[in-house]
Amino acid sequence: MPVSDTLTPTGPAHRGERPARVATRRRLLMCRPRHYDVTYSINPWMSPGRGTDGALALRQWERLRDLYVELGHSVEEIEPVEDLPDMVFAANGATVVDGKVLGARFRHAERTAEGPAYLRWFQERGYQDVLWPQHVNEGEGDFLTVGRRILAGTGFRTDIRSHAEAQEFFGLPVTSLTLVDPRHYHLDTALAVLSDDEIMYYPEAFTPGSRAVLRTLFPNAVIASAEDAAVFGLNAFSDGRHVLLPSAAKGLRAQLRAHGFEPVGVELTELLKAGGSVKCCTLELRDR
Ligand code: ARG
Fold first, then answer.
1. Statement: residue 5 has pLDDT above 70
2. 35 carries an active-site annotation
3. Is this structure's pTM higher than 0.90?
4. How far apart are CA 142 and CA 184, in angstroms?
């Protein structure tokens, strides 16, 4: 069912179980994997010798883009740059909240040039409030907006000093969370935002202190199993009703259904070879 701008009560509410899940229309930025490949290794998923199927990667990515459009979202595309094979992971390109754009500054030299390429896209489109950051941050890979709060990952990529930088720039509370498992090197590989006050996550990817913080803030969160986390099930995108996630995350799909969401399985196996999936390919443009 496509998204609507109005509040249409459908689904479980009719049976008096819980309020209906309502999708809201989103603006998304994506980058076609025209130059995608695994030519270096900066996370445990990447094995440059293994080879990638460029045509399949493109088909899988197009399916994701088409799904967004079918669901009623609008998708913008940024021109991919040669020699930047990871640029397909648009989530890392910036963080956009209330129409303000915090640029991304990458940890690894292989991805450094993506930061200015994404920033230029925003400048050319007239975004006024744009900040080139002082500290390393990998965009929505590590900054996830939940309602009027930002959850911020650190431990592998994003510098914890950038959390204060983001709080000051957006004027929103930023909560730091520390990642410990190298397979979950970005926050968006261990935690997904489902609605303005709900998340799902894999506790083992975090330090004990960060787990306690998540339990305090989100006592009713959906908890992912090790199996679902291992197939990148948490690298998901939710519009408030539909949750797009890797098809292989069977347990999470059932849990989401039980919570009143509509899980939509997506095959992005070629992109997983670089350590990315649904959310990594998707940057949300939260314009005012
Ligand atoms: N190969 C990329 C990297 O290691 C994958 C980035 C995935 N993006 C994400 N939002 N988690 O940087």
1. no
2. no
3. yes
4. 11
